[in-house]
Amino acid sequence: MEKVAIIGVGQTKYERDKKETFAELVFEATSKALEDAGISKDDVDNIVSVSSDFWDGRTISSMAISDASNAYGKDITTVEGDGTFGVLYGMMRILSGSFGVTIVCAHHKGTESNMRGITNCAFDPLVERKLGIDAISSAALQARRYMNRYGVHEEQLALVSVKNHKNAMRNPLALLPMDISVEDVMNSRKIADPLKLLDCSPVTDGACTLVLAAEREAKRLSTSKKRVWLKGTGHCSDAFRLGDRDLSDTRALKDAAKRAYTMAGISDPRKEIAVAEVYDAFSHMELMWLEGLGFCEDGAAGEQMERGVFNSDGKLPVNPSGGRLSSHPVQVAGLAAMAECALQLRGEAEDRQLEDPQTALVHGINGMCGQSHCVWILGK
Amino acid sequence: MGLYDDKRRRTHTPEGYELLTLESGHIEYNFDWHLGYYWSKFLAEMRDNKRFMATKCPQCGTIYMLPRQVCGKCYVEMNDWVEVGPEGTLEGFTIVRFPYVDPNNGGMKEVPFTSIWVKLDGADTRLMHYSNEHDEKDLDVGMRMRAVWAENRTGSIHDVQYFEVIR
Amino acid sequence: MGKRVGIIGVGQTHHAAKRLDASGVELISEAVTRALDDAQLTIKDIDAVVIGNMDHFENINYVDMWAIDGLGAFMKPVFKVTTGGTTGTTVGACGYYHAASGLFDVVLAVGWEKNSESDTQAAIATCANPTLERDPFAGAIGPLATEYSMYMKAYGATEEDSAIVAARDRNNALNNPYAHSRQAVTVEDVLNSPMLSYPVKFLDMCPRSDGSCAVIFASEEKARKLCPRPAWVHASVVRHDYTHFGDLEWTFMPTLERASAAAYKVAGITDPLNEFDVAELYIPCATCGVKWMDSLWFCDHGGAPDLIRKGTFHMDGQLPINPSGGVISTNPIGATGLIRIGEGAWQIMGKAGDRQVPGVEKALCTGFGGCSWSDVMILGADLP
After folding, report:
1. Which chains touch C (3 or more CB pairs under 8 A)?
2. Is A11:A208 a contact under the CB 8 Å cutoff?
C-alpha cells in the first residue's frame, strides 16, 4: 500500500463552556497544525471536516467553519462521525492520487447543546427513542451485560477511571485531570446502574486538526522526526437495534482490527503495539475494546487492569492522554487520540512520554454502544 | 411485489393494513451558541453605539461585513476593525410570500417579508437584512438604503429594524 | 487523477411527495436492491458502503448506523458524509475515492431523503448563522431569487427565459418513470403560476421529495470484469468557498466557474458545449438554469438567455440538459446530487430508457448546495 503520513498536529485545550465559536476553535487547531507541520496554507489541497449537524444545531455544519479550515479554493468534504473515520477518508483521497496534502479537522461544543436529547435521536423514533434511551442508559445496559457475561466487577471498571484521570494529570490539554481512588469512583453519584459519574465521560468542547500527506509530499515538506506513518486501518459496523446484537460481543471491532492488523503486518498485537488510545466513552468500554483488539482474552481485561498491565508504566500503556473519560469532545475524540499517538511516536509527549514507542494503535467508535469501529495502526 | 413496482399510490399493505404515520408532536432542542470575540463586539457596537463594525484583512485589504475572525482567502486572523455604513447600496432583494416554519420558535414565519443584501458604504461584502418595502415595484437594485434602528436594542441583528430606501 | 474507477450500476426509488409505503430504511433498501440488480451483483459483492442525507429533515442522528439493515452494511465498513444540498454529489465523490484509493474494489454509495417528514424550509434555514443570518434568510429560494433579479438587471434576462427552462425540465420528466413530478407544462403555465419570491414562481421551483438513489463504483479491474460499459469517472472537483451569504458574488457564480474549469482541465475538456453529449445539472430553480450556463463556460457572462431561447439545451438541441427532468421534477435532497450522477451514468451505459440521448460518450454532472457551493463530476464511456 502506498504510504500516507501524519505531518502536523494541532489541538485546542479541551474545556467546558469554551467561549469561542466553532470557527474560532477550528482556526486555532488548524493554524497550530499547519505551524507544527511547518507548511503554508497553500501546500494543502483538500480538507475533510468532521462535524455533526445535530451537535452544532445547524444543518450543513461544515459551512460555519469553511473559512476557518483553510477551505477557500480547495476541495472540501464532511464526514459525520468520529474523527478516525475522517482520517480514513482523508487518507483515501490521498491514495486515489488526486491530492497530496489533506487537512482533517474536527470541532465540537458539547456544552452548547443537549447531549441526552441529541443521543436520544440516534435511536429509532418508533420504539427505542420513546423509551427515552440515550448514550448513557444504553451504555449502562451494555455494561451490565458485559459484567454478567464475564463476571467482571464494578471495581474493575473503576480501575479504568482511576488510571485515565491520573494519566490526564500529565496532559495540559485534558479537561479532567484527577487523582482519584477506586473508592472515589464507587462512591460517585449513580447515573444509570451500574454506571456512576466517574464511569462516564464529560461533555466537552474542543477542536483538533491533523495534516496528512502522501509519501512524496511528506518527504518533501516534513522531517523524518515529524512524520508518523499510517500503516493499517479497518472499519466495520455491527447491527443497529440494541436487541439485534449481544452488546457484549465485539465482533465488529474484531473485524475492523483484523483488517488493520493485516494491512500493517501485525500478527501479535500484544507484543507489537507499544501504546494504544482506545475509545473509553465509559469505563466498561475500555475493557471491552481491549479484548476486541486482541490485547487479552474476552472477559480478561478487568483482571489485566488489576495487574497494572495497561498503566502508563505497564506492559501496554492505554490512554496515556487521559482518554475520553478525561476529555470527550464527540467527533474530535478520535482525532485527539490519534494526535496523542503521533506525539508519542515522535517523542513529543512531554511528561507523558513513553520510552521510544515504535508502533501505536488508535481506536474510534461511531454510533451507540460502539456499533461501528475504526482501528488505526501508526508507525515511525 | 416486483422489484420495480411503483408503490407511490399505495395507502394500505397488500393484506389491507392501513399505512401509518408517526407524528412526533412538538420537539424542542435548545442551544446556547457562544458568539465569540468578533460577534460579541459587533453586536455590542450595534446595541450601544448604533454603528456597524467590520473587519479588514491585513493581507488583501478586504473589508468584511459581517465581521469574522478569519479572511477565508488569505487564511489570516483579522484584528483591524473599520466602521462602515450607516448607509449602503441595495444589491439584491427578494420578497418572500410563502410561509414556512420558523426554526427559532416553531411558529410560522410572517409573510410577506423582504430579505435584502445591502452593501454598506466602505464594506466589500454584503449584509443580509430586511427592507420594509413589500412590493417589487418599490424596490430596485442600486437604490440607496439607510438603517432604521430599534428603540430598544439588546445586542441582536434586530437592533436594526430594517433598512429603508432613501428617497 | 490517480486510479481509475467506473460506475457499474445505479438504482433509484420511485420518487414522490410522500412515500407512505416505506420508512426511510425501506426506501434506501429499494434503491440498493435495484442498484445491485442493475449491476447483477449481490450484497456480498459490496466491499464498503457510504451514505448521506441532511440530518434535520428526518431528525435521525447517525443515519449510517440507523439504516444498516436497508443499506446492506451489516458487518461491513460504512460511514456517512453530509454537506447539505451537495450531499448527493459528495456521496458520489466519496464512493469514487473509496474505489480509487485501492482499499476497496466495489463500493456502494447511497443518498436518500424523506423530505415529507419535516418542514423543509425550516430545516434549511438552520444552515445560516443562527444569530446573524438565520432570521433574514429567505429560505432556500431567497438567495437564488435575489441573484436572478441582479442577473436580469445586468444582462437583460427575463422571467420568460426561466420559464423556458422550467417547461423543458418538467416536460422531460414525462419520460422518466422514477420522477416525482410529471406534468406537461407550457411556458405560459409557468409564467402564470403563483409568485413565491420575486422573480421565482411556483413552477420555476423544485418540489421536495421522498426518494433514494444508489450508485455502485468499482475499481478498474473489477469494473471491466463486471460491466460491459461502465461510466468511467473522468473528474471530480468540489469548491465550497463561502461561509456567509453576504460574501457571495451574485452576477456570476464563482464556485461553479472555478469547479467546472478545474474539472474540465483534469478531463481534458476545452469546449464543453460541444464536447459533452448530455448534462445532468443540479438546477434547483429554473432561474439558475439560465444564469449558471455562463458559469459552466458554455458562453460568456450574459450569453445564457440567447442559448436558452434557441433551444440549445432541449432534448433535440446541441446539449440536452436534464433528460431526467432534473431537480425541478425530483428533489429528495440527500439523493438529488447522486441522482445527477446516476442519470449521467445511465446515459453513458445506454440504460436511460425513453429519456436516452443517442450516442452519449461524455456526461457532465453537477451538485449545488449550501452557500453557493459547487460540485462537478465528469463521466465518460472511454477510460480516462
Report:
1. A, B
2. yes
pLDDT band at C252 (very low <50, low <70, confident <90, very high): confident
Query: Which of A282, A53, A332, B33 lies closest to C127, judged by CA?
Result: A53
Element (H, E) at C213: strand C210-219
**Three-state DSSP state, A211:** strand
Q: Where are the domains of chain A?
A: 4-114+205-221
ipTM above 0.90, yes or no: yes
Beta bridge partner(s), residue A196: A190
Closest CB from B22, B35, B69 relative to A27? B69
Angle CA C349–C42–A374, to nearest 5: 105
Are A108 and A204 contacting, i.e. CB atoms less than 8 angstroms apart?
yes
B125 in helix, strand or coil? coil
Any CB–CB contact under 8 A between A312 and chain B?
Answer: no
Instruction: Work out the pLDDT band at B78, boundaries 50, 70, 90.
Output: very high
Tens of pLDDT along C298-309?
999 999 999 999
Cα distances from C208 to residues A61, A121, C16, C334, in angstroms, run: 21, 23, 9, 11
- The residues pairing with B165 across neighbouring beta strands, listed in sequence order, are B145
Q: Are C151 and C291 in contact (CB under 8 A)?
A: yes
Is any Cβ of chain C less than 8 angstroms from the Cβ of B59? no
Q: A55 contacts in B (CB within 8 Å)?
A: none
Give the helix ranges, DSSP H, for A153-296: 154-168, 182-187, 215-221, 251-264, 269-272, 283-292
Task: Quote the CA–CA distance of C307 and B2 in Å, as a whole number.
Answer: 43
Residues of A in contact with B72 (CB under 8 A): 66-67, 71-72
Sign for the pseudo-dihedral over CA of C156, C157, C158, C164: positive
Chain A adjacent subunits, 3+ CB pairs under 8 A: B, C
Dump pLDDT digits (tens) for B37-75.
Answer: 999 999 999 999 999 999 999 999 999 999 999 998 999
Start-to-end Cα distance in chain A: 16
Cα dihedral C375/C377/C378/C381 (nearest 10) = -160
CATH classification code of A4-114+205-221: 3.40.47.10
| Pairing outcome for strands A359-366 and A275-277 | parallel
- Parse chain B into domains and list their residue ranges: 36-165
Residues contacting residue A156 through CB under 8 Å, at least 6 positions apart: A287, A302, A303, A305, A306
Residue spans of alpha helices (H) in chain C: 24-39, 63-66, 68-71, 87-100, 120-125, 141-155, 159-172, 187-192, 220-226, 254-267, 272-275, 286-295, 304-309, 326-329, 333-349
0.90 surpassed by pTM: yes
On chain B, the residues whose CB falls within 8 A of the CB of C134 are: 103-104
> Cα separations (Å) of C60 from A53, A123, C72, C114, C146?
11, 7, 18, 11, 32
Neighbours of A358 (CB within 10 A): 12
Q: Does the beta carbon of C131 lie under 8 angstroms from any beta carbon of chain B?
A: yes
Residue contacts between B and C (CB atoms, under 8 Å): 134
Minimal Cβ distance to A96: which of C3, C79, C258: C3
| Maximum C-alpha span of chain C | 57
- The dihedral through the CA atoms of A331, A335, A338, A339 has a sign that is negative
β-partners of residue A106 are A50, A208
Domains, chain C, in order of start with CATH, read: 5-121+209-233 (3.40.47.10), 123-206+234-380 (3.40.47.10)
